[in-house]
Design brief:
The structure holds 2 protein chains of 2 kinds.
Chain A: E1 3-5, H1 13-36, H2 42-67, H3 75-92, H4 97-119, H5 124-143, E2 154-155, H6 162-181, H7 183-193, H8 195-200, H9 205-231, E3 233-234, H10 241-254, H11 259-275, H12 283-297, E4 307-309
Antiparallel strand pairs in A: 1-4, 2-3
Helix pairs in contact in A: 2-6, 2-9, 2-10, 2-11, 3-4, 3-5, 3-9, 4-9, 6-7, 6-9, 7-9, 10-11
Chain B: H1 2-32, H2 39-55, H3 60-84, H4 92-114, E1 119-120, E2 130-132, E3 135-137, H5 139-161, H6 163-173, H7 175-180, H8 185-211, E4 213-214, H9 220-233, H10 238-257, H11 264-278
Antiparallel strand pairs in B: 1-4, 2-3
Helix pairs in contact in B: 1-5, 1-8, 1-9, 1-10, 2-3, 2-4, 2-8, 2-9, 3-8, 5-6, 5-8, 6-8, 9-10, 9-11, 10-11
The chains are: A mainly alpha, B mainly alpha.
Amino acid sequence: MTAVVDARAPVSSKWNFWILLLGALVIYGVFQVLIDQRILNSYSALILYQMCLNVILAVSLNLINGFTGQFSIGHAGFAGVGAYVSAVMTTKLHLPFPAAVAAACLAAAVAGLVIGIPTLRLKGDYLAITTLGFGEIIRVILINMPYVGGAAGMTVHRETNFAWLYFSALLTVVVIANFVRSRHGRACIAVRENEIAAEMMGLNVTYYKVLAFTIGALFAGLAGALSAHTFYFIKPNSYGFLQSFNILVIVVLGGLGSITGSILGAVVLTLITAALQDYPEWQMVIYSLILILIMIFRPQGLMGTKEFRIPFARPGGRGNGHVAP
Amino acid sequence: MTTFVQQLVNGISLGSIYALIALGYTMVYGVIKLINFAHGDVFMVGAFVAYFAYTGLHLGFIGSLIVSMAACALLGVLIERFAYRPLRQSTRIAALITAIGVSLFLENAGIIAVGAQARGYPDMLPGSPFQVGGVTISTKQVEIILLAVLLMVLLQFIVHRTKIGKAMRAVAFDQDAARMMGIDVDRTISYTFAIGSALAAAAGVVYGAYYSAVDPLMGIMPGLKAFIAAVVGGIGIIPGAMVGGLVLGLIETAVQSFGFSLWRDAAAFALLILILLVKPEGLFGRHAREKV
């Protein structure tokens, strides 16, 4: 029915995009009906919400880690910034929820920019540990802020529903997928492939790294704001490095540099976590074993760098202006 | 002045614990370029093995320490053999995720095995505090510092005066060239893990004795801090890890003694970021030129 095609294959990308978008809308309709008719109980609905949030976090981290090749493990910190900014906006300042979400995205993007400019000069493991450090510093700052409840956290109103979460996830996917295929996205991929060569070709390497980092942080802020208003309780420790690892695991499991891989990874990992919920004692042990085994047997992740495509979108089809050689 | 000296001693004893853990990080990073996130949990296992050896088998401090170091050396070798070796040819991020997986596994297996709540650690390092010029110094702290110094001297001896140490330095310098010279790279890496894990175990035992409590998640923060220490000193460089550990211990103690104990963890990370921005190769590192 469907197949996986190499991302470089000349497939009619426009048709592929619209068909996938249509498919996404159908999936939305199906699940919305299932939730409305109470065929899915509230627990399953929560899993679904978590899935949407994980998709946002994973796809946005994939832009940084997978497409631009900058190894970041502080992603949850940005989600924390988004969660806290939006929570303060709605509960303390009584602003409408959409305004709070916008502010959360903006704040997280600014945090990404501020952190990205000095740190993105570093490479590899050094960058990883620095982003982890920044994530932890954000957490410690939140713990030391009595205004937002300190380590005990704060309660938030429930403001979201399935439509909010699903369409936010869809928006994230569409924006990042289009960004990656744009001129800027190709520049990011060039930075990943060979930084020096990219610089030789006249690309402003630092600019593209910071750009990817900021966009990634923006969407992490979105996920943070949504999660705060979905699970109506936030505390600094939910945004520590364990959560950052979790997002990274989803991205690597799905395949670095594959957006559909990240979506698949988010779905699979959320389901695994939910399935293990019944065995709280063994949950994390099994989870970690699965993680180790997947990495040993499929280190490139489920999808590698490939993308999921509709098979009947023929090479050189209408719309993408591809000329067959 | 007395408080200053007092805090200095506190800082050095905390720092020598960090240094012991950092040595394992830096050695492993030196040979296989992997941030071994499970290292902090090996430290935890070390503390628990000594706990059971001391309370169950009544082996005394030295006996428990040796048993714990031996057990962790074995654990380190097993982790490398079954989790990291299959991934040696794949991407570094896959190896890193595996390290995180091993870390989560040890923590949660630890919770199942001994329970999640902290338990009191036996007073393995007895001795009454003594006074030197008005400064009260606990015997424990002196013993911790002495033990750390002893182990570091031993490590320096192994690395610089023995055949296996020479092999380690060769593998760290250039793995392929070392292999061509007839060095058994796999065996050398196993030895590196064994030595690093044994040092972490020793750190775990003294950490438990110093703070009188252990729990299965105790390794997370000291593990991260020790990694910071390794980076601060210049990762892959053994004296760097020692100095980095001491610097970190002193800074944390200073932050704490000025009354900002809640900011202690942030201070450690801030130090890391500062060092990386100003001197990314670490205090002792040599700047590596980038080649096309």
